[in-house]
Amino acid sequence: MDAQDWNYEPFWNEVQQQIQTQLSNQEYMMWFGNLIYDSSHKEKIILSVPSAFYRDQVIKRYLSVIKGHLDDLTGCSMDIEFTIRKKQSSAPARTAGEQIQSVADTQARPKAPASEFNLSYTFDSFVIGDNNSFAYNASLAIAKNPGTSYNPCLIYGGVGLGKTHLVQSIANHIRAHSPELKIAYVTAETFTNEFIQTIGEGKNQLFKNKYRKVDVLLIDDIHFLQKKTQTQEELFHTFNALYDSNKQMVFTCDRPVSELKELTARLRSRFERGLNVDLLPPDYETRIAILKKKCEIQQFSISNDVLEFISRTVNTNVRDLEASLTKLIAYSRLLGKDITPQIAMEQLKDSYSVSREQSYTIESIQKVVAEYFNLSHIDLKGKKRTKAVAFPRQVAMFISRKMTDLSTTEIGYEFGGRDHTTVMHACQRVDSRIQADPTMDSIIQRLMRQIKEYRKSSR
User: Fold this and answer.
1) Distance CA 46, CA 68 (A)
2) How far apart are CA 408 and CA 259, in angstroms?
3) I need a labelling partner for 53 at 20 to 30 A (CA). Which of 231, 239, 292, 393 fits?
C-alpha cells in the first residue's frame, strides 16, 4: 500500500481540537502552536518540531495524551515520531528605515486578545445547575463589580467541574465591559515558574510590578503551591498589596483550602478571609443540559437517546462528559456515520468502565460498612444522627478518604450531600478512636479487605 493511503492528518486535526479543550489557551499555544503534522505511514504519525528541547518537552508533558487520543480515534496503537525542522526566514534584510516603520505599524495596530484567555469560556456558555449555581452567581457578581464585594473569592471542587471556566468567564466579562482594567490570569504553576526565573535573572522587581499593579488577579490551582515556601511568601505579599488597594482576587483549588496542609497558616487565612464556594459533580439533568449546549456550539445533531445514554454513563465531571461527546462527534464526522445508541455504547465502553469504577467504589464502601454494622447503606446516606448510624457513617467516610481519590467535598456529596467539614470531622473522630483503641485499626483493615473482595466479586 502506498504511503499516501495512510493519511492520518484528519485524525491529527481532531486530536488538536480535543486537546485544546483540555488546556488553557496559553498552554496550548506554547506547546502545540509549533507542533506540525509532517507525514504518516501505517500506524505511525510523524510530527515536526522546531528544536530538540521542544521535542523533549512535548514527549515528557503530552506524548501519552496525544497517543491516547490518536489510539481512540484510529482504533489502533499508533507510533508517534518527531522530526526537527527549524524555521527558515525567507524575508530579505530590511533597512533601518523599514525597521522603524515596522515598529510604528506594530504599535498602531490594535492589540490582539491576550493568549492566556480562552474566549469560549463565558457565562453564557456555562450551564447552570444545582451543583454550581452559587459559584456561578458569585462569579458573575464579581465580574460586574470587581473589587467591591466577595474579595477574595476561592472556588474549589474536583477536576473538570468548571473552575477554570468560571475564572476565565470573569476575565472575559471584565475585558468586554471594563477594558481599562488590567487583568492577570495565571496558573499557580506558571506563577511559580515565573518567580523562580526572575530570581535567577535578578529581575524580582519586574515580577512584583507584573502582579502587584493589576486590578484583577486570577490564579488557577493554588494547591500546586504546597511545599513551595518562597512562592507562598511572594504570593502572601502580593495578596496584601492588592487587598489593601481593593483590587479583586479570585483563586481556584481542587479542595477546600483547609485541606492544604503544606500551605503556610497566614496564607491559608488570607484565602479563607473572603468568599469560599464549592463546585459539585453535575446531576443527571444538568449533564443533559451540558451535552445539549455542547452540541449547539458544535452545530451537531444527536438523538436524545444517545444524550441520555452519555448522561447515565459518564457521571464523574464535566470534562469527562464533554470528552465523551467530542469523541462521538469526531467518530461521526470522520467516518460519516450517524451516532446510534449502539455505536455510543461501543465507543464509550472505556469511559463507562472508568465511570462505573469511580462511582462504584464509594457505593461498595457504603454497602460493606453498612452490612458489618447491620445497617442498610441507605442509612449511611440518610439524615439519622443516632449513635447506631453516626459512627458507622464516620467509618465509611474515613475509609472512603483512604481508598479513593475523592476530595472531602465529593465524599460528602455521596453521603447525602453533607458538607466537607462533616467528612473532615468524621476522619478525625475515627483516627482518634484508632489511636485510643488498637482493635479499631484491625476493624478498619478488615473492612478494607472486604471492600476489595466485594469489588472483585462484583465485576
Assistant:
1) 16
2) 9
3) 231
Contact 212, 167 (CB under 8 A): no
Q: Is 439 exposed, middle or buried (CB count within 10 Å of its CB: 0-12, 13-18, 19+)?
A: exposed
C-alpha–C-alpha distance, residues 443 and 440, integer Å: 5
Express each pLDDT in 63-97 by its tens digit: 888 988 888 777 778 889 999 886 554 444 444 44
Nearest by Cα to 231 from 202, 204, 259 = 204
Residue 135 near residue 222, CB atoms below 8 Å: no
What pLDDT shows up at residue 87?
52
Tell me how long the chain is. Answer: 459
Beta strand residue intervals within 111-182, DSSP E: 153-157
CB of 397 closer than 8 Å to CB of 429: no
Residue at 122: amino acid letter: T
Q: Which three cell numbers stand for residue 157?
A: 471542587
Sign (positive or negative) of CA dihedral 248, 161, 419, 135: positive
Cα→Cα distances 18→65, 75, 166, 205, Å: 10, 16, 20, 39
Q: What is the structure's pLDDT at 379?
A: 87
Determine the Cα–Cα distance for residues 287 and 314; give it in Å rounded to an integer. Answer: 9
Mean pLDDT of the chain: 83
Report the candidate in 189, 184, 278 with the shortest Cα–Cα distance to residue 226.
Answer: 189
Strand partners, 216: 183, 248
Q: What is the pLDDT of residues 102-135, one digit of tens each?
A: 433 433 333 334 446 778 889 998 989 888 899 9
**Cα–Cα distance between 3 and 440 in angstroms, integer?**
66
The reported pTM is 0.58
Report the C-alpha gap between 29 and 31 in whole angstroms. Answer: 6
- Answer for the pair 155, 251: CB distance below 8 angstroms, yes or no: yes
User: Which distant-in-sequence residues (6+ apart) come within 8 Å of 21 by Cβ?
Assistant: 322, 323, 326
Using DSSP's 3-state secondary structure scheme, residue 156 falls into strand
